[in-house]
Write a structure and sequence with these properties.
By secondary structure, the protein is of the alpha/beta class. It has 9 helices and 7 strands. It has a single domain, classed as Vaccinia Virus protein VP39 (Rossmann fold, 3-Layer(aba) Sandwich). Helix 5 links the parallel strand 2 and strand 3. The longest helix is centred in the C-terminal third of the chain and has 24 residues.
């Protein structure tokens, strides 16, 4: 399934004014389960780190850079992305809203070359798109200052890209990743911990997200609407009415998932320290 065209279509609608874009960010914060998990980790981190240099590695549309720059005005946020249009778009938007503690630049993470520059690095749903992930882990470790932390959200190998070849639960049609832009179907817990160790991180913590509540919420609030939008753009007309029913259910499921410890799940939240 082509996910990027849907994102571009939504981006055009919500990019018409800064106010609409902020509303879009707020909507994503409520709909996307990974946001709940990421913000929970950031809330724990900020207590002991009042002033931080942050790298948003693969910032895309700038959702997390906006959250960090808005909620932690003493932090300096640098966003990088391999798509120049995303870089230009974020710089323009943040200038419009007067957020001076965030800036954006072009960078290919596989060739990223900065040393001891950041206290915190975010990689939110990025690694599943990058072929040479070991090179990126190496580069991000190098970019961190000693004691710095890398925070990752990425699919797990338990069906995280909605792949149906990971045991009886997923044996549907043998299809590949639900999202065509993913270059891998998800990470094994031991595998990603080993790659982080090889990159130079002293320690790491890997836990599952998207347990049973999260998987239901993902299908209800993201997968099914995206499938329908791929089938016909006319679904944009129906979408608000669909979410009147789906959103309250998804909100409850997201809150539950973020507060639970999951023995398995289709997502991973990873922290690694240099």
């Amino acid at each position: 399934m082509q996910y990027d065209p849907i994102k571009r279509s939504l981006g055009k609608v919500f990019n018409k004014t800064p106010w609409l874009r902020v509303c879009f960010y707020k909507m994503l914060d409520l709909l996307l389960l990974r946001t709940y998990h990421v913000r929970r980790e950031l809330n724990s981190y900020v207590t002991d780190h009042p002033s931080v240099d942050v790298l948003d590695a693969g910032m895309g549309f700038g959702q997390y850079s906006y959250f960090l720059a808005s909620h932690y005005p003493a932090w300096k946020v640098t966003g990088v992305d391999v798509k120049q249009e995303q870089v230009d778009d974020c710089n323009n938007f943040f200038a419009q809203i007067g957020r001076k503690n965030a800036s954006f630049h072009y960078a290919d993470l596989e060739n990223f070359d900065e040393s001891n520059s950041y206290d915190l690095v975010l990689s939110i749903d990025v690694m599943e798109h990058i072929p040479d992930d070991q090179a990126v882990f190496n580069n991000l470790c190098k970019a961190l200052r000693p004691g710095g932390m890398l925070l990752i959200s990425t699919p797990s190998d338990q069906g995280g890209s909605d792949v149906h070849d990971h045991g009886d639960e997923y044996k549907n049609d043998g299809s590949a990743s639900f999202i065509d832009e993913h270059v891998r179907d998800g990470y094994n817990v031991a595998d990603i911990a080993d790659k982080l160790r090889k990159a130079g991180f002293n320690s790491s913590e890997v836990k599952y997200s998207y347990g049973v509540p999260g998987k239901i919420s993902w299908k209800l609030t993201m997968k099914y609407p995206i499938l329908m939008l791929n089938a016909t753009k006319l679904f944009f007309i129906v979408l608000p009415f669909y979410y009147l029913v789906a959103f309250p259910v998804g909100l409850i499921l997201n809150l539950a998932d973020a507060r639970m410890n999951h023995p398995t799940g289709t997502g991973l939240i990873v922290k690694a320290w240099k």
